[in-house]
Write a structure and sequence with these properties.
single chain, 10 strands, globular
């Protein structure tokens, strides 16, 4: 009888530990996903967010529970995704090199609370990125700096400075 009791106790404890570990992993995953979202009111008081320097904050209320404007961050970030050398924006006739961040690394970039757009940006140093990555669309891992998130109901894009390509 003692063996049966010990066996069931051991199984119960093992199950509890496994489920507890799963719950902790799930909670950590959820926190990591949400850790890149910043509150428009709180960001104005911060000097750093996600290890990046908050350089400029220009946000204003727009309707109920919405904000528009831009926030500029300084510091290098590594992201992966699809590089598109000739993205047409709005009614422009000339394309710009842009980057479409994949789901795996989109949480590496700061995001305004309520901004549910697909995560992408265009480069503010086109000659450097075109020289480094060329004129053909490709999946690549890159390092960027000077990330600026812009949220305005218009044809605008987030921007970043291309630093270097990283082997994929």
């Amino acid at each position: 009888m003692f063996r049966k009791l010990s066996f069931f106790t051991l199984i119960s404890v093992g199950l509890a530990v496994s489920l507890g570990g799963f719950a902790i992993h799930r909670a950590n995953s959820q926190n990591q996903t949400d850790s890149n979202i910043f509150d428009p009111v709180e960001i104005q008081q911060k000097k750093r967010f996600m290890g990046l320097d908050v350089v400029k904050v220009d946000l204003r209320p727009f309707g109920e529970n919405r904000w528009v404007g831009e926030v500029t961050f300084d510091g290098e970030v590594t992201v992966s995704g699809t590089y598109k050398p000739n993205t047409l924006i709005g009614d422009s006739q000339q394309g710009s090199p842009c980057f479409y961040v994949d789901k795996r690394t989109e949480n590496q970039l700061p995001r305004l609370k309520g901004d549910e757009r697909f995560m992408w940006f265009c480069f503010n140093n086109s000659p450097a990125v075109l020289e480094a990555l060329g004129t053909v669309e490709k999946d690549v891992k890159i390092v960027i700096d000077d990330y600026k998130t812009i949220y305005i109901p218009s044809d605008v894009t987030n921007t970043a400075t291309f630093v270097r390509s990283v082997s994929r």
